[in-house]
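Hi there,

I know you've been waiting on this one. I reran it after we fixed the sequence typo, so this is the corrected version. Both the input and the resulting structure follow.
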Amino acid sequence: MSPHLFDFMNGCAVLEWTAIDDRVMGGVSRSHIRADPQGHAVFDGEVSLDRNGGFASVRSSPGQRGKAGAENCLLEVRGVAKRFKLSLLTDDSVDTLNYQAGFVPTGTGWQTFRLPLNAFRATFRGREIAGAPALDPARIRQVGLMIADHQAGPFNLEIRRISLD
């Protein structure tokens, strides 16, 4: 198995994450991430479109998270059938370029998503940035999870591990 960026089977891993919701721009969505005693993390909350909102997200603290030569990001998750995004960031800023790829959990069992790093798209504040440099896996500093795209209502995503291979 490849080394893990985050292994949420260790409950302390969630301590490196914090919520960054649409409240930063006046919205009222809310989310949080917590350790579940069953050995995984839970990212949950509610997305509201009120006050021009519409997204909820959590992000890791900055650190050396990259892996030269990595080609994929693996996620072990289960959750509601809503579209989530995984974000990979190459600097330590809060308001910065995000490289994002989407995934949609289905069913009630654990699923492993293999997201090719070359499929991640550069975005800034939700808009794709044409001409941005390709994601360099050796430079990954932060990891995030997001729900957006006008998906109002409660959500729940359970996460076991996030890895690069």
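Quick highlight: Residues 4-164 form a domain with the Jelly Rolls fold (CATH 2.60.120.430).

Best,
R. S.
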